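Reviewers asked in the last cycle whether our approach scales beyond single polypeptides. To address this, we selected a multi-component target totalling 1042 residues and predicted its structure end to end. The input consisted of the following lines:
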Amino acid sequence: MRRIEAPLSPAPRVESVAFDGSSFPVPDDEARDEAFARVEERAREARAQGMRIVVVQGLGFVGAVMAAVVANASHGGRPRYFVIGVDLPTAAAYWKVAMLLESRAPVVSEDPAIQAYVDRGVRERRNLTAIADERAYALADVVVVDVQLDVAERYFESAGSVAVDIEPFRAAIRAIGRHLRPDALVLVETTVPPGTTAQLVVPTLREELARRGVTGEPLVAHSYERVMPGRHYVRSIERFWRSFAGATPEAGDAAEAFLSTIIAVDEYPLQRLGDTTASELAKVLENSYRAANIAFIHEWTRAAEAIGVNLFEVIRAVAVRKGTHDNIMRPGFGVGGYCLTKDGYLAQWGVTHLFGADVSLDVTIGAMAINFAMPRHSLELLAEAMPLEGRTVLLAGISYLSDVADTRNSPTADFCDLLREAGATVVAHDPYVRHWPEQPDVAHLPLDEAIGRSDAVVLAVRHQAYLTLDPRRLARRSGLVVLDTQDIVSDAKAEELRAAGVRTIGVGKGHWRRLDRERAR
Amino acid sequence: MRRIEAPLSPAPRVESVAFDGSSFPVPDDEARDEAFARVEERAREARAQGMRIVVVQGLGFVGAVMAAVVANASHGGRPRYFVIGVDLPTAAAYWKVAMLLESRAPVVSEDPAIQAYVDRGVRERRNLTAIADERAYALADVVVVDVQLDVAERYFESAGSVAVDIEPFRAAIRAIGRHLRPDALVLVETTVPPGTTAQLVVPTLREELARRGVTGEPLVAHSYERVMPGRHYVRSIERFWRSFAGATPEAGDAAEAFLSTIIAVDEYPLQRLGDTTASELAKVLENSYRAANIAFIHEWTRAAEAIGVNLFEVIRAVAVRKGTHDNIMRPGFGVGGYCLTKDGYLAQWGVTHLFGADVSLDVTIGAMAINFAMPRHSLELLAEAMPLEGRTVLLAGISYLSDVADTRNSPTADFCDLLREAGATVVAHDPYVRHWPEQPDVAHLPLDEAIGRSDAVVLAVRHQAYLTLDPRRLARRSGLVVLDTQDIVSDAKAEELRAAGVRTIGVGKGHWRRLDRERAR
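The resulting structure, written as structure tokens, was:
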């Protein structure tokens, strides 16, 4: 998911380098004309075979997979759509187009279905392609908008200071408007501030159509994905609940018809909402709810540590209450990823700037502040146990979620900064992550070597490899401090480690802290 | 659940008046001696028949029902326990003892099982009795503590100002200690600040035992009920999850053995926690979680109203996500009842005053402030629609929960105060409540009469009778304003009412507000 802007003429031999090091020359104007002619011809053929043309704007984490999923839709055993993924002809973005053209999924994921779907679309059925050219929007029966919309900063102190970087999104919509057929559906999947579809997308498209002298109201709808990274990524698109709404009844009908061909609606009936603002609000509310629930537990984590209680045990007892308490969160390391770290801000910005309403989402914005502060809390626990200056600390787990490779906005990056500020050297281990874009200078080491070199080990992510880790591998290094932020070390293992001269401390593990104090007396 | 204090000698002919108007003379010393002699004799006989003696301290909302439930426990078809309910010989409390002695449940509830259990214990099996005499604690194998522990005020601005009225609870524990056998189990069921059992109950009992020259460590445990008012009250004790912890391993074992005879542990296995502080924390965390979830939605309610969205529709769409979002709350009128309005404060007080910890539960305390502010929000919505001075407003529903009679801390009482401050006359209707102790001056009227007399109807509680209300009964009064705070009026009904000249406004119903504005243009 990258910004789509007016076509540029890149200087010759500009290279676009992918996350895995593959390098691709960004096409010049001539190459792009040739590519567009080919795509145009293939789209014409596909249409002649009864396919409709879907263009996905943005080949990022959602768009690339959405393109492959749409290409996989069939009727009567034959492809239903010819799908064109579009991204920018820039060094930062072009590699996504180029990888897809080579039938390589341009996202890192633990779900093998993604590559299988890409292969099926690009190689077998030949109904999936990609291009770095906005003229592709002219070919579309449906444009699916999957570009990013970001906040201006990573963190805001208060509801009043929230700022959103809306212009790149507007430019992307404008690019569509420059080419769109007036009868084509524009389905916005991007998470946007509530009000954006009605107040920004529709007027912008209307303006661009009018500029071309095209009459007719554009067909615009909003529907939000609920993609989960990990092993069931594709399933989280195809087999999961979907809400949507049209800017007009006709647009709602068109969106309903399109989504019904992509999603298993027999089992997961679509939910049509009253207006696009409701659909937009639902998405940011969902993620804000989760962020607020996490913040609530962070607050009680501090309390439990102060009063000597094992909060994990308490939460297991509380979570038996099905339907009311079973979604209660666990103490942890903070919040990462793309959604929970920004969607509350998008909500506030829409309320304030699109509606001019005097409503502050203080609980929501405050919850995000608490979540962002959690890596500092882990640092304080560690600093309480040992001086950090000159020490080496192993960060065991750097992704933002267990058993995935995704490091986007991972709180481990903030923790790493804090450790370095405190004078520590950081080394890393993560069975899923080879390259850490947010912290490129950190050395990645095999686990035993890393333990051997470290004064402290921070278990930061609940990866399977750490849950099954034999404590003897830690116990070899006497004097080590283990900071468990994810309820990985059981009380029995903590005792075993203690016997070997390894001290364990933990987020939410107030009972360990109490025992430490009692022993110190 | 009332405070238990040192025995008093009430002046003769003091009457104790129950909620239903029944009046009972508070017994004098002589009458109490006689009553105690009878109970002592009956307990001796029961013990000879193999029963153990359980004394329940406090015959309030939980204690009275707990006593009946314990009396209902059997083994081999015979009663397992002889149960003595204890409350104070005061005008405020004695009626509970007297009613139980007459085999009348001293609580109002929609659950017919309560009266059935009381009849079975008092009349049929004759293993349930009551007395206003602390000497009963001397007879106990198990004392169950179900007295109240209250906050000093109803509302606190900040974490730092939270105050708890701990002394009555300490006095109640001291009364037990004056008589307790050292081998008896004291099971605290009262919701207490975390740390209370270990730091207050155990030392107080130890002190009282020592004062009597009795050696031995008292057996003390904590376990919290999860009683739900309404039609399944008894089931919420007998057939629901229970956590508990002992102050010592022996006390934990004794509590486990006792609870296993009361609760269907085959289906709802007991959860033993590491220490009593964990058990206490679990209870206040559970209720604070719910209060925080409600506050979160209150905040988004204001946002949805401001941007023209129907938040109920959005929440239905969000709640399909099982396990993560299906417990999301609905917009409403505020929070009432005994637990959600105080337990966050108990948590903060324990952390600050029992542990001296510098941890502020800001999210939790802030959430409670938001919840307490919701009746004012409803008032503002109503005042936006019509001047309130000199008008008559019907409060339809006054309990704090749908389809129950319980008015404890109901936000409708606050709303009633606000209406009166604004110069309105309040009339009330509630199919479950005949007498409103918090607002004794409000006239209760039959529904149609009340509608006929009113300028506005506030649907404040989601009682069944309102959900099925024929809108024509409201439509008869043209010019009426209906404030729906509980998603009772559908969009179709709102249109029907509008056609009859009745305007509907609603909490969380941003789309109605938007339509109103569009029509006003």
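Chain B has two domains: 15-274, 374-520. We regard this as preliminary and will revisit it once experimental data from Aim 1 are available.
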